[in-house]
Design a protein that fits this description.
The structure is a single chain. The chain is α+β, with helices and mostly antiparallel strands and 107 residues long. It has one domain. Helix content is 26%, strand content 13%. It contains three helices and five strands, in the order H-E-E-E-H-E-H-E. The strands form two sheets. It has a three-stranded antiparallel sheet, with no helix packed on it. The chain has a two-stranded antiparallel sheet with strand order 3-5. The N and C termini lie far apart (37 Å). The mean pLDDT is 84.
Length: 107
């Protein structure tokens, strides 16, 4: 089950959430910045966690084929495809992380 491993739910990327200025924040399963373990609201612009990630269409299509949402945000897995569920899902998730590690981040 997804909630079985709190460490992974807090420390693994779950979504690349696009902000109004075109940057992305990488959030955990609780929609908090990676490593944040809180139930409090987190105002993303108050933290240096926004990145301008270059995501060409061919990469975004490989991340989530046909499933990017209208805001340009990308979920790396769903409840059904959670990497915590089985080895096949873990491999698929790892492949997505491998794609992301190749992308440029503007500084």
């Amino acid at each position: 089950m997804l909630n079985d491993n709190l460490f992974l739910n807090i420390c693994l990327p779950y979504i690349l959430k696009q902000q109004n200025n075109g940057t992305y924040v990488v959030l955990n399963r609780r929609y908090k910045p990676l490593g944040f373990h809180t139930n409090e609201f987190v105002d993303y612009p108050e933290y240096p966690i926004q990145h301008l990630i270059c995501l060409p269409k061919e990469v975004s299509d490989q991340l989530i084929p046909g499933k990017g949402d209208n805001s340009g945000s990308f979920y790396l897995y769903t409840d059904e495809t959670s990497p915590l569920n089985n080895a096949k899902n873990w491999i698929s998730y790892s492949d997505k992380l491998a794609l992301l590690k190749e992308q440029k981040i503007k500084t």
